Amino acid sequence: MKLSSFLHFAAFGIKTILFRGKDPILGTVILTDACNLHCKHCSVNNITAVIHPYTRIRGEMQTLYDRGVRILFFCGGETFLWRDGEKTLRDLVIEAKAMGFLIVNVVTNGTFPLNLPEADLILLSLDGDREKHNEIRGDTYDTILYNIDRAARDNICLYMAINQINKDTVRDVCITARDTKNIRAVSFNFHTPYPDTADLALTREDKAACCRVITDMMAEGAPVFNLKSAFPYLIDNSFPTPCHQCLVIENGKISTCGRCIDVPGLCEKCGYFFVAEYTLLFRGNVRILAEMLKTYLKYI
């Protein structure tokens, strides 16, 4: 991370903690909900299958920037399906950097060639070992590993949503992250149970077991991009929600924290590790702050 970026985030954090601010720093632009997969745990794919035009996406990027967002994510659907004329996802990443966003990340299912050297991180969904991943996402595991091997650079962070199908394969994903070329780290979430996928939700005991495995794998050298200090809060769902420092914009609509905020009762069951980490950070949790500094400086 550049020193100038670090100083900007440090100043934002200090101001937010001291004055209990609710200004945003992290924003997500939903490029489309169109997706080439139909994953068992996903509730937001192919609802409209609309690929939003460049002018709208560019305007949404500007809106987030003007609100103070400096960490930008592009999400879907599947982000690599986005195209408008000759403009592609890579053009959006380059433009976001030129606009002044300090960190630009992309979320993808990994089934398309990973030619995004300008992105700070490519968050790529790998949901278990070959058997469990393919059970959830279809026969894509080998394609994803092939694309990782041929990626433009080592800016890939695996992104696993832990649920009842794959909860016993956390160790496998950690080993893949540690031992595979071009993978910088792995980041975990617990399944957030939308009404149509509630059967995949983890119990408190499941969450505790997964956190023990992740902690053990950290000790064995797995590059985990999560904060151990947040694990107790995630196990008990005792962290504050929503995260006011995070915004999502889709087709002109801005949501605080995420799209799931509109589903009654879902915030209380949130499984997003970053929400726990950010809300605890901005409440002044010293352990979270110290661990975040160490982790972010290492992997971004």
Key descriptive features of the protein:
16% strand, 10 helices, two-stranded antiparallel sheet, alpha/beta, TIM Barrel, 300 residues, 10 strands, globular, 8-stranded mixed β-sheet
**At CATH's second level, what is the architecture?**
Alpha-Beta Barrel
Rg of Cα set: 18 Å
Walk across the major sheet and give the strand order: 8-7-6-5-2-1-9-10
CATH topology: TIM Barrel
Mean pLDDT: 96
Assigned CATH class = Alpha Beta
Structural class: alpha/beta
Number of strands: 10
Taken in chain order, the helices and strands follow as HEHEEEHEEHHEHEHHEEHH
Dominant shape: globular
Q: Could you tell me the strand content as a percent range?
A: 15-25%
Q: How would you describe this structure to a colleague?
A:
The protein is α/β, with parallel strands linked by helices and 300 residues long. The protein has a single domain, classed as Aldolase class I (TIM Barrel). It has 10 helices and 10 strands. The strands form 2 sheets. An 8-stranded mixed beta sheet has the order 8-7-6-5-2-1-9-10, with helices on both faces. It has a two-stranded antiparallel ribbon with strand order 3-4. Helix 6 packs parallel to helix 7 (204-219). The longest helix has 17 residues, at 3-19. The mean pLDDT is 96.
Would you summarize the structure shown here?
With 300 residues, the protein is α/β, with parallel strands linked by helices. It is 38% helix and 16% strand. It is built from ten helices and ten strands.
